[in-house]
Amino acid sequence: MSQSRADFSTADITDHTDSFLRHREPATGFPTLNAQRTGKCILGCSLLTVDCSLPSVITFLRGKLVEAHPTHAVVDVGGVGYQVAIPLSSFGKLPAPETEVFLHTELVIREDAHLLFGFATLQERSLFRMLIEKVSGIGPKTAMAVLSGMNAGTFAQAVSAGDVKLLSAIPGVGKKTAERIVVELRDKLGDLPTGASSPVSSGTAAVDLGEARLNDAVLALGALGYKPLESHQCVRTLISDPKNAKAGVEDLVRLALKQMN
Question: I want to staple 8 with a disulfide (CB 3.0 to 4.6 A). Which of 12, 49, 109, 200 is the partner?
Answer without folding.
Answer: 12
